[in-house]
Amino acid sequence: MLKFTMVENKEGNVRYKYFPEGGADYGIVAFSEKTGDGSIEALAKNDNHQRYAMKLFKRIREMASKGTFEKEGTVAWY
Question: Among 46, 56, 64, 75, which one is least packed by beta carbons within 10 Å?
Fold first, then answer.
C-alpha cells in the first residue's frame, strides 16, 4: 500500500510524493503527460526495488488516460 500527494502540476508535467506503507519516508516521481515518460527524482528509503514507485506510475498513467490528476490518494494491492 502507498499513499501519494501531488507536489506540482504544470502544463501536464506532474510531480508526486509517495509514501510506502503510508509511512513518513517518501520518494518523489515525475511524469510528463505529453510524452508519457516517468522518472524517479528521489527514491523512498524503503523502496529498494522501486516497487512502490512503479505502482504509482501505473496509477498516474491511468489518471492521465482519464485526463485528470488526483491531488492525493492511496494505491493498494494484494
Answer: 46
Give the integer Cα–Cα distance in Å for 24 and 42. Answer: 14
Cell representation of residue 33: 503527460
Residue 13 to residue 6: CA distance in whole angstroms:
11
Confidence of residue 78 (pLDDT cuts 50, 70, 90): confident
Q: Give the residue carrying C-alpha cell 510528463.
A: 32
Beta strands in the chain (DSSP E): 2-10, 13-20, 27-32, 38-42, 72-75
Under DSSP, the state recorded for 78 is -
